[in-house]
Design brief:
By secondary structure, this protein is mainly beta. The protein has 2 helices and 13 strands, in the order ββββαβββββββββα. It has one domain: Sandwich (Jelly Rolls), CATH 2.60.120.10.
């Protein structure tokens, strides 16, 4: 596996090695010892999966306090634009984001540490999105940051009129209106 820390400290792009032949390919998508040697120790406790069609935008979601989550995300079918927004209170990159195209064809993964909001937009006809988390879902600690917050200036690579959003994602709050966050 190849590990590359991105421009925001703590966010890693991980490229598993693929071994291919006429039958297809084989790849190790998770290897704890290699992950810990590059990124550090993370105790993943749950795997999640979603299936979405083109234009679906999910995010920007986070859990606060003791329920904060680190995530290791990947696409097993299709392509998405994956976004991690730094919300760590003392971070020099607070309020900045990284955006990475993830696809099943390239096989990359993105590690997002605690203290980030996360979201993705589906760029292909269909995308199957899988991710590991290091804490369980706790709806009482959940928050949604507005995907279209003009201060964040995120280009989701999809026109707003082509987006499909949940009610929760339509009601996200602007970052400037968030009084405090605990991670």
């Amino acid at each position: 596996m190849e590990f590359q820390e991105l421009e925001i400290k703590g966010v890693w792009l991980i490229k598993p090695q693929r071994f291919g032949d006429s039958r297809g390919y084989f790849s190790e998508t998770w290897k704890q010892n290699e992950f810990e040697a590059h990124v550090g120790e993370v105790n993943f406790v749950q795997d999640n999966e979603s299936l979405s069609s083109r234009g679906v935008l999910r995010g920007l979601h986070l859990q606060r306090g003791e329920w904060s989550q680190a995530k290791l995300v990947r696409v097993s079918m299709g392509e998405v634009l994956d976004v991690a927004l730094d919300l760590r209170p003392d971070s020099p990159t607070r309020g900045q984001h990284v955006a990475v195209r993830l696809s099943h064809e390239r096989g990359e993964q993105l590690f997002i540490p605690r203290g980030f909001a996360h979201g993705f937009a589906v760029l292909s006809d269909v995308a199957q999105f899988q991710y590991k988390v290091d804490n369980v879902y706790a709806p009482q600690s959940e928050m949604t940051i507005a995907f279209n917050d003009p201060d964040l200036d995120i280009d989701w690579l999809i026109k707003p009129e082509e987006m499909t959003l949940s009610d929760k994602d339509k009601k996200g709050v602007r970052l400037k209106d968030v009084k405090s966050l605990e991670f």
